[in-house]
Each structure stands twice: as structure tokens, then as C-alpha cells.
Amino acid sequence: MSLNIEKPQFTGEAHLPYTLALITALGGVVGYMKSRSVMSLLGGCGVGVAYAIAGLSIDKNEAERGHAVAFCASAALAAMMGRRYKKTRALVPAGLLAGVGVAAAAYHGAKYRQWTQ
Q1: Contact at 8 Å (CB) between 21 and 51?
Q2: Fewer CB within 10 A of the end CB, N or C, for the chain?
Q3: Half-sphere exposure of 27 (CA within 13 A, CB side)
Q4: Which own/partner contact pairs does 73-77 have at CB distance under 8 Å and 24+ positions apart?
Q5: Neighbours of 77 (CB within 10 A)
Q6: In angstroms, what CA-CA distances link 68 with 28, 34, 98?
Q7: pTM of the predicted protein model
Q8: What is the 3-state secondary structure (H, E, C) of 7-54?
Q9: What backbone torsions phi and psi does residue 82 show, to the nearest 5 degrees?
Q10: How far apart are CA 38 and CA 49, in angstroms?
């Protein structure tokens, strides 16, 4: 006799990755437009695409993979912007986005653990 227990379906888990996808991609474009920084464009859009993939995965009931991808994107965002904050001491945008990256990594790490238990 086996118990067939389905994982709970939560609503709204994809909102954060979609929001961060938009914010990081727009931030990359703005960084490029202000200072012609190709690294800002590639970094922002790259992390934005990763967040979008995470949101799509969560929406497709592949929450484990979605939260894992979002965790990696968040860790990358925290590392990139944390390094920039350390160099420039500019609270906006570097310090703010480093903090957002850390918070998002904590959230997605916790959600990943929840879905894998």
C-alpha cells in the first residue's frame, strides 16, 4: 500500500521571478543607455532571462526547477551588485539590488527546499 500524496499547488510563486526579470532587464538597458556599458546590458538581460525562465518553469508546474534557476539568478545578482557596491559605495542601484538578490536567494532557496521535501 502506497500513499499518493501530491505536492501542494501554490498560487503566485512566479510573480517574484517575473518582476525581477523585468527590473533586471530594464536595469541592464538603462545602464547601457547611460554609460554605454555592454556588461550592464549583458548582465541585466542575462539575469532577466534566467528569472523569466524560472517564472515560466514555476507556471508549468516545474516549481523545483524554477526555484533552483531563480536561486542561481538571485545569487548571481547579489554577487555582481555586491561587488559593484563594494567598489563604488553607491547605495542605488548597486546596494539596493545586492540586497534584493540576497533576499530573493533566501526566498527561492526556501521554496526549493519546500518543494523537494
Answers
A1: yes
A2: N
A3: 20
A4: 73/17, 73/20, 73/47, 73/104, 74/20, 74/101, 74/102, 74/104, 74/105, 74/107, 74/108, 75/101, 75/105, 76/47, 76/50, 76/101, 77/20, 77/24, 77/47, 77/101, 77/104
A5: 27
A6: 23, 32, 19
A7: 0.88
A8: CCCCCCCCHHHHHHHHHHHHHHHHHHHHHCCHHHHHHHHHHHHHHHHH
A9: -65, -40
A10: 16
C-alpha dihedral sign at 7, 9, 12, 15? positive
C-alpha cell at 4: 499518493
Q: How many residues does the chain have?
A: 117
Cell of 43: 548582465
Q: What is the pLDDT of residues 15-35, one digit of tens each?
A: 999 999 999 999 999 999 999
Total Cβ atoms within 10 A of residue 31? 18
Residue with cell 547611460: 34
CA dihedral (82, 103, 74, 91) positive or negative: negative
